[in-house]
Amino acid sequence: MSVATSLLTACSGFLLAVLWMDLMFDTQVLGRRDARDELPESVLASIAAYYRRATTGSRPMNRLIAVVMVVLLAALAIRAVRGHDPGWLVAASAVLAGAPIGLALTRTVPNAVRLGSRSDDTARQSRLARAICRDHLMCAGCMLAFVVLWVVY
What we know:
Blueprint: H1 3-26, H2 41-57, H3 63-82, H4 87-117, H5 122-152
């Protein structure tokens, strides 16, 4: 196994583990089927406290996740430039890694920071918590597929 392949599997495994930790809190929203309903205060408090610690309270360690994302994309770019892998593998990998990373940077992390601040009313916090959960479920599926793809290939 090459260094780049090892980096791809290690980074994607790390990101999948981070998503697992996030989902342990996010899934509290899943039992609440009606998206129009506000989540109970205990659920919002639990999720918001986690995201406050994970996004702002853990500096500088919270930056590690972004570094791992960059390393994963760099390792994937190296694999693409070297041209030893089939085009379908590189293209699928770019989508499976790029979509969750892009989503995290543009929507999920800003939503988590906002939820962690608890500056919005309960209805808005409930919408943020549900959106974060949906994002993390999609990201976890993509990262799991990415890991499987590189372990099997």
